[in-house]
Amino acid sequence: MKKSLLLAFFLSSLSSFSLSVQADDACEAVLCMFSKMEKSAVSECASAEKEFFGINVFEDDDDEKFDAEKTLEKRQEFLQQCKDADKDTISKILDNFGRKQGSKE
């Protein structure tokens, strides 16, 4: 019984760590995509931009047909993980970059 409780505690703390890292990544992406939108891109933002533009959704029946609306939804879900980000800022980022196809890498 003690082992089960300990394992449950360990797994829950691991999952919260993972969510925290994702939220940090999302906040970095918000800052970097906002700076890109404002034409003041920063070289340190390459990985955050790659992560953002790496979110691409293609239609189920055709791996080559980009689905801009579903991509927008997924990118919105990602950016909203940053609880400190202003909703208007996220909205502006998505208006500018939310539907653009990124690299297939």
Concise synopsis of the structure shown:
By secondary structure, the protein is mostly helical. The chain is built from four helices and no strands.
Descriptive report:
The chain has 105 residues and is mainly alpha-helical. It has one domain (23-97). It is 64% helix and 0% strand. It has four helices and no strands. It has helices spanning 2-37, 46-53, 68-79, 87-97. Helix 1 crosses helix 2 (46-53), helix 1 crosses helix 4 and helix 3 runs antiparallel to helix 4. It is globular, with a radius of gyration of 17 Å.
Number of helices: 4
Oligomer: single chain
- Which class of secondary structure composition applies to the elements? mainly alpha
As for the number of domains, it is 1
Topology:
Elements: H1 2-37, H2 46-53, H3 68-79, H4 87-97
Helix pairs in contact: 1-2, 1-4, 3-4
Characteristic key phrases:
about 100 residues; mainly alpha; TrbM
